[in-house]
C-alpha cells in the first residue's frame, strides 16, 4: 500500500518504521518541517510543507498528532483528499471527529507507550481498528495483522475506556516511579535497588487480580507506618509527595476495608 502521514512525533516515528517493512511511505507532513524531513529521509519518503502538497495517489493517510489537533487537521486535509481513507491513531478521540467532516474515516490505535529511545515490540502490542466502510475496515485489518498478533475491532467508547485505564497503568505508575526516585535521590540511595521490586510487582499484576496482590502499610491498615512516612515527607518539605501519599493510602485502605 501507499501510505502518507500527518505528524512526525513518537507515534508517527514508530508506525512509519514498522509499516515501511511491508508498504511504501509516500509523504510526511509536520508543522515542524525539520522533523518531517528527518523522518522522511529515514524511510525514503517526501517531506511536504503544506497540506496542499499531499498526494491523492495513496491508499491511507494516517493522522498521528495530538488529540487536540485532530479536528483542525481533518478540516484542512479533507479539502485536498476528499476520497482518501483517513485514520487517526488516538485512543481517546471518537471516530466522529473525522466522520463529521470526512466520509472514509477510521481509527488505527496502538495501545502502547512510545519513546524514541526504545524499540516497540509490535508483535505483542494490541492494535484497535475501526472504520466507517467495510472495505476500509479490511484495509486496516490487513495493516494491523502485519504488525501484531493482537488485533481488535473496538468502538470509540471501548477505546476510551482502555485509554483511561492506560493512564492509570502507565502514566500514573511511571509518575510513582519518578516520586520514588526523588525520595531515594534525596538521601543518596541507589534507585536501581528498587528494580527487582518494580519487576515483581508488574509480573504479579499480569498473573493475578491486582486487588489480590496489594501489599503494604495502607492495605494492612498500619497507621503507625503511614504516620511515620508522612512525617518523613513533611520534614523533607515535600508537600506534593505527602499529598499523593495520603491520597493513595486512603484509597487503598478504603478498597481493602470493603
UniProtKB/TrEMBL annotation:
Q: Which GO terms of the molecular function aspect are on file? A: oxidoreductase activity
Q: Which key words tag this protein in UniProt?
A: Oxidoreductase
Q: Which Gene3D superfamilies match?
A: NAD(P)-binding Rossmann-like Domain (3.40.50.720), ProC-like, C-terminal domain (1.10.1040.20)
- SUPFAM superfamilies, alphabetized: 6-phosphogluconate dehydrogenase C-terminal domain-like, NAD(P)-binding Rossmann-fold domains
Where does the Pyrroline-5-carboxylate reductase catalytic N-terminal domain start and stop, copy by copy? 2-88
Q: Does the keyword Oxidoreductase apply?
A: yes
Pfam families assigned: DUF2520, F420_oxidored
InterPro entries annotated for this entry? 6-PGluconate_DH-like_C_sf, DUF2520, NAD(P)-bd_dom_sf, P5C_Rdtase_cat_N, TM1727-like_C_sf
Q: Which residues does the UniProt record annotate as the domain DUF2520?
A: 126-251
Top-level taxon in the UniProt lineage: Bacteria
What name does UniProt use for this protein?
A: F420-dependent NADP oxidoreductase
Which organism is the protein's source?
Acinetobacter celticus
Amino acid at each position: 500500500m501507499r501510505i502518507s502521514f500527518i505528524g512526525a512525533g513518537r507515534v508517527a516515528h514508530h508506525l512509519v518504521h514498522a509499516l515501511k517493512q511491508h508498504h511504501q511511505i509516500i509523504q510526511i507532513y509536520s508543522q515542524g518541517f525539520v522533523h518531517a524531513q528527518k523522518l522522511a529521509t529515514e524511510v525514503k519518503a517526501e517531506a511536504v510543507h503544506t497540506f496542499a502538497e499531499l498526494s491523492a495517489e495513496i491508499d491511507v493517510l494516517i493522522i498521528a498528532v495530538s488529540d487536540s489537533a485532530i479536528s483542525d487537521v481533518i478540516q484542512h486535509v479533507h479539502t485536498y483528499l476528499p476520497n482518501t481513507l483517513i485514520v487517526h491513531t488516538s485512543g481517546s478521540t471518537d471516530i466522529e471527529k473525522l466522520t463529521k467532516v470526512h466520509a472514509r474515516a477510521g481509527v488505527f490505535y496502538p495501545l502502547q507507550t512510545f519513546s524514541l529511545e526504545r524499540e516497540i515490540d509490535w508483535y505483542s502490542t494490541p492494535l484497535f481498528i475501526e472504520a466507517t466502510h467495510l472495505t476500509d475496515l479490511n484495509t486496516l485489518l490487513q495493516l494491523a495483522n502485519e504488525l501484531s498478533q493482537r488485533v481488535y475491532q473496538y468502538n470509540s467508547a471501548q477505546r476510551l475506556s482502555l485509554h483511561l485505564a492506560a493512564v492509570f497503568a502507565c502514566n500514573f505508575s511511571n509518575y510513582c516511579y519518578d516520586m520514588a526516585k526523588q525520595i531515594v535521590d534525596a538521601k543518596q540511595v541507589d534507585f536501581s535497588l528498587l528494580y527487582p521490586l518494580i519487576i515483581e510487582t508488574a509480573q504479579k499484576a499480569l498473573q493475578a487480580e491486582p486487588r489480590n496482590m496489594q501489599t503494604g502499610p495502607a492495605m494492612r491498615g498500619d497507621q503507625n507506618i503511614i504516620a511515620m512516612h508522612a512525617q518523613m515527607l513533611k520534614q523533607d518539605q515535600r508537600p506534593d509527595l505527602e499529598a499523593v501519599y495520603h491520597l493513595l493510602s486512603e484509597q487503598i485502605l478504603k478498597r481493602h476495608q470493603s
